[in-house]
Amino acid sequence: MSGAVEARELLNSLPSAKEALNDLVSGIYHAGRESRTWVESPEHGVPFMGSTDILAADLSHINLISKKQVEANPNFKIGEGWTLITRSGTIGRMAYAHSGMDGLACSEHVMRVVPDEDKVKPGFIYAYLSSMFGVPLVISGTYGSIIQSIEPHHISDLPVPRLGDIENQAHELVQRAADLRVEATALLKQAGIKVNETFGLPEKLALSHRNFSCAVASSNNVMARMEATFHDGIAQESDRLIDAIPAKDYLIDLGVSFGETGRLKQVFVEQEFGEPFLTSGEIFRQIYAPSRFLSRRLLPDDNSWATQEGDLLLARSGQVGGIIGRGVWADSRFNSACVSVDVIRISAQNASILPGYLYAYLFLTDVGYRQLIRTAAGSSIPHLSVSDVQKLLIPRGESEFEEEVNDMVWKAGRDRAEAQQLEDEARILVERTIKEGGR
């Protein structure tokens, strides 16, 4: 209940009008608990977001739930402009549903707040609920000891101050942020398609870890690597596709540098005394919000640990089919952040290959992903090593083509950074107006 009593007292003291949340929405609900039927084919499935997926910047790799199950329970579906709130486990995390989420299915662990647009702007509802006043009120309804939860009726009477034109301004900022995120996703998808089409690469290869296959490998290759996944039929197919490309370079020969934080002494301090620290899970979120800060005094003086804009962040460990082998473009928000030992930093700003183009091949094409993930070693928690990544062959195209792809990736990064800035502005605007008495 920390902060909830103070927030409610301040809201009650406002001279401006207030209404219950339930009076401003078309509904507050979740999908209800039921077993899920997973499918492999997009023809028979709908992308399904879990409670962590609503916070993700990239939704292209999420699992599919049966279309029949979604049709039988329409509450699974998400609509554009809704506010999504995690309602169990880590409670109170929120996301604004942009157009890229419209029609997707979502877990029962996420509560949907569906605004009535005849009464209130969707962006304002999100900015208010995710503010320093809304969050304490939302989580104050938490119940349970082992797995905490909240239900729709716990937030239905939550007071919402009416702020006049401020509501329109907040909505426009939030909506613009949502549009920029959709634009960034489209740019990255287009960049990946452009690389595939230029080199004749397929959009998707089979998932070898889910499909039985037989392959023959030379004894020399087996002596170097003995894992079946390194020599399976899908991995060999990716080799044949790359061999057919006339121009290619080994990554190690391109002047690319690799950063590994190693086992830094992790002493966490208050934000003013430290530098942001990000785990391999946190780098994939659409909101850059470090929760821990490493002691600045104990970090190496050479800044070898610091992330720069344009770095490629590669998740090096995890379960195959999860985040391992996936990558993130470090936009301006990541400057001077320190990533965990489970992330490899690839820096190509001063290399003989453009960082945006390298990102597009490695992380936006399935062949690039296949080449990375085949080198994962380990049984319980597979991991990738820098030495294996350095040995990858990178297809090369005309300089104009690589520059075009590079520009698309940089633009997507700038869009994502601006989106967070706009969303923060909306939240600050609402908070400041409430503090000033609703004026």
UniProtKB/TrEMBL annotation:
Q: What is this protein called?
A: Type I restriction-modification system restriction endonuclease DNA specificity subunit HsdS
Keyword annotations from UniProtKB, A to Z = DNA-binding, Endonuclease, Hydrolase, Nuclease, Restriction system
Q: Which terms does the UniProt entry file under GO BP? A: DNA restriction-modification system
InterPro entries, per database record: Restrct_endonuc_typeI_TRD_sf, Type-I_RS_S_subunit
Q: NCBIfam families, alphabetically? A: antiphage_MADS5
Enumerate the GO terms in the molecular function aspect. DNA binding; endonuclease activity
